[in-house]
């Protein structure tokens, strides 16, 4: 009686479904458009180079209004809802990951993470909250007849400074993505190597 050879484990693991990748790409495109048009409105050199301020303002307004749409549409996906649930849970291993990150400790096992690490969870929560604040303050600035002058002045202050902060945080997010080709491949194709998953997300069980 011959023994059946055990099948080798798959070398790539499924990380994101098509809907999740579509939501990420579409939201990223809208966010970058908002940042680019904001820069054209507030940086004099860019404003002179681009011109057509009224058109830039309209693109900025409608793109900002559309920002939540991809996520709301993607909620029809069970996989996306499951990922949002994971992003909302913060456990003891996430605190260990943060302590190791603050110490710049990269020794094996020092940064335990499930499907998402603590840094990704904090970023997702912050950018979601910032987007809602930007949407609210932007609407106050857009529909000027609906709110008192003091509210509009405060909204403009918050909107402008938060926009600058978002630009800096987004630059950091993009920089970290550029430094991790396998993470980018996971968002582009939906799958990652088993070796990468075991090293970066050892608590993740696909």
TrEMBL record:
Localization annotation: Cell membrane
Gene3D superfamilies: Transmembrane di-heme cytochromes, Chain C
Membrane-spanning residues: 22-44, 64-80, 122-141, 161-179
GO CC annotation terms, alphabetical: plasma membrane
GO molecular function, one term: heme binding
Coiled coil (residue ranges): none
Protein known as: Cytochrome b/b6 domain-containing protein
Species in which this protein is naturally found: Streptomyces cupreus
